[in-house]
């Protein structure tokens, strides 16, 4: 699964700062990476043209992952050895 996140500014102040805004996201199936990348690129082009878009980010999560997300202790039978030449 892929998600594109971005912020839309509500109104611009005179010093180019924004006041308020809305966090938005769009979901894409795990087979739609190309579509997700194209969508993110479209938002980035809008941002570069001075549009009301910022902080465009694409995130992914593999629903078929074999392990738990994050950091975990290795299995009890794992024997790590530092190898030196």
Helix content: 10-25%
Q: Which outline best applies?
A: elongated
Order of helices and strands: EEHE
Category by helix and strand content: alpha+beta
In DSSP terms, counting alpha (H) and pi (I) runs of 4 or more, how many helices? 1
Widest β-sheet, arrangement of strands: 2-1-3
- Proportion in β-strands: 35-45%
Low-confidence stretches: none
Mean pLDDT: 84
Distance between the termini: 42 Å
**Count of beta strands:** 3
**Gyration radius over CA:** 20 Å
Largest sheet: 3 strands, antiparallel
Characteristics:
single chain, about 80 residues, alpha+beta, three-stranded antiparallel sheet, about 35% strand, elongated
Describe this structure in words.
This protein is α+β, with helices and mostly antiparallel strands. It has a domain at 2-12 and 19-60. Helices cover 19% and strands 35% of the residues. It has one helix at 33-48, and strands at residues 2-12, 18-28, 53-60. The longest helix is centred in the middle third of the chain and has 16 residues, at 33-48. The mean pLDDT is 84.
Short description:
The protein is α+β, with helices and mostly antiparallel strands and 85 residues long.
Write the layout of secondary structure elements.
Elements: E1 2-12, E2 18-28, H1 33-48, E3 53-60
Antiparallel strand pairs: 1-2, 1-3
Region (Disordered): 62-85
